[in-house]
Amino acid sequence: MGRIELPLALGMVGGTMNIHPGVRLGMKLLRCSNVREMARVFAAVGLAQNFAALRALGSVGIQKGHMALHARCVAVTAGARGDHVEKVAHLLVKSGNVKVDKAREILATLPPLEPFEPHSANDRP
Question: What local confidence, expressed as pLDDT, does residue 78 receive?
Fold first, then answer.
C-alpha cells in the first residue's frame, strides 16, 4: 500500500461555517467533526477529479468531453427540454457553433415534444 501527503490549508472556524445552514448540513453529511477529517475529504475529492481527468485524456479527451457538457448546458439555456436537450447538444457540437442563438435556431427546427400527461388510476391494467 502506498502513502501520499497532500498539505491543505483549511479552516473550520468563522465565516459561514457556523452560520450558513448549507455548510452545516454539508459537514454533517460528510461526518467531519474537525479540520483534519475535512482535509482528508478535500484531498480525496481532488484525487478523484485528477483520476477523472486522466481517464478523459485516455479516452475522448478533456476538450471533447467538456464541449459535450457545455453544449448540453447551452441547449437547456436556449429552452430545450427532455429528449431535445441531447439532440440540440449533438447538433451544436456538430456545427462547431456552441452558442445559445444557434441552439435556439436548431430547437426551432425540431418537432414539439409530446406534452406529459400523468396516467390516471383508471389507465392501469
Answer: 95
